[in-house]
Amino acid sequence: MSALPSRRQPEELIDLSVSRRCHVVGVGGPGMSPLASLLAARGHQVTGSDMRDSEVTEILRTEGIAVSLGHSAEAVRDVDVVTFSTAIPASNVELVSAGELGIPVRHRSGLLASLCSITNSIGVAGTHGKTTTTALLTHILVTAGRDPSCIVGGQVAGMAVGARHGKGSAFVLECDESDGTLDVLTLENLIVTNIDVDHLDYFGSFEQVQLCFVDAAKRTSGLVVTNADDPSSRIVIDVLQGQKTLRTFGHAASATVRIDAVTPVKDGTQVVLEIDDRSVTCMSPLRGEHNAMNIAAALAMATGLGVDVDTACTAVTSFSGVARRFTERGSFNEALLIDDYAHLPAEIEAAIAAASSHPSRTGRTIAVFQPNRYHRIAAMADTYADCFRAADVVVVTDVYASGTAFIEGVTGELVVNAIRASHPAAHIEWAPTRQDIVKFVAATIQPGDVCISMGCGDIETFPDDLQTAVK
């Protein structure tokens, strides 16, 4: 394989072992708000700016963070470091002013790298499952008395903005590969949940996606946990075998944490595992084979770090999950409504399988999907052809931009056409607008059905829209 292309490069670390005055540009964003929250909790003086008030900015204010609306050169005067996300352009007045004043400016990844350098960092990376695995691993470590800090990219009970500050040395963080964050983190321990095709606009090829995870694992100084079932993750195992402390998880006979059985039950899932030659049974409120894999990944890391197996399984039982990860959202016409963040083919296939095995399902599985990002659909529309096979009815709406530029001719209908080309008999509906989806599902859904709506955009309001529209 060729070397990694020129992507994000490491920045000089900021010494965060002493109190700093930190200014966070775009502080209300999903990646920046937990960083600001954790910095403040660690004793740093934090200010932030955003274009609008939100529930998140109000929470940050209650945590002692001074949030101003709009961007101005004055906002960065007298601070020690300014941090920003990929969404903020280089022309932003605060970044420009900081540069003129000689104030260090760091991408979000640079501040995370600085935090990793003074903590016992445990990164959770991978294409699918990293948010749930990060939150679950944190919950296990809390239960075990380790009192970790955490940054996670989702809404989790007890973490108002996706951050937790603990007094222990462990720092669990979800590591995003899409903007180069994973490229610059030097971690003490690392989980790679799996490796799949995504973010080709950044990486250029799947080979480079794989190499990003391999490179991160090589830089890891301690324990590496990876997927024994995923052929694309095999490269991590092959490269690190004999060089690193390596633990694996999955159904494979060779896995350090082996899944022996996954059984849907009334209140969730029963997972039987073999952990270091000991058989254990964990009950989880989460559903689906994919969540059994997330559980196994978290257990592989936790037990590898010395957490007692029984303590870890007890924690699994009490972990309620992450918002928008197979969240039951009430019913309509005596049919169950489920909301899920799934937006890539493997995630969609897993979510539909979980919905189809739900004990309340006596009828059909109806899958509603909102494609995400124009460049992703332009590059990957054909890869969605087979992931809806287990659904009885499929409804596809238009692309949610997520801040990406419109591409002429790229609509959700590309996904519809891909499915129809591979499965001409499939019951699939093209419903470009929210009104179209609501109208079709309201007329189609029957008692005993399970309707799962999926995507990482505003499709999360669909269950509410459906229930409200017919009242």
UniProtKB/TrEMBL annotation:
InterPro entries: Mur-like_cat_sf, Mur_ligase_C, Mur_ligase_C_dom_sf, Mur_ligase_cen, Mur_ligase_N, MurCDEF_pg_biosynth, UDP-N-AcMur_Ala_ligase_MurC. Pathway: Cell wall biogenesis; peptidoglycan biosynthesis. GO terms for cellular component: cytoplasm. It catalyses: UDP-N-acetyl-alpha-D-muramate + L-alanine + ATP = UDP-N-acetyl-alpha-D-muramoyl-L-alanine + ADP + phosphate + H(+). Pfam families: Mur_ligase (PF01225), Mur_ligase_C (PF02875), Mur_ligase_M (PF08245). The keyword Ligase applies. Its EC number is 6.3.2.8. It is found in: Cytoplasm. One of its GO terms (molecular function) is UDP-N-acetylmuramate-L-alanine ligase activity. Residues 124-302 form the Mur ligase central domain. Its main location: cytoplasm. Residues 22-116 form the Mur ligase N-terminal catalytic domain. One of its GO terms (biological process) is peptidoglycan biosynthetic process. Keywords: ATP-binding, Cytoplasm, Ligase, Nucleotide-binding. Residues 324-457 form the Mur ligase C-terminal domain. PANTHER family: UDP-N-ACETYLMURAMATE--L-ALANINE LIGASE, UDP-N-ACETYLMURAMATE--L-ALANINE LIGASE-RELATED. NCBIfam families: murC. This is UDP-N-acetylmuramate--L-alanine ligase. It comes from freshwater metagenome.
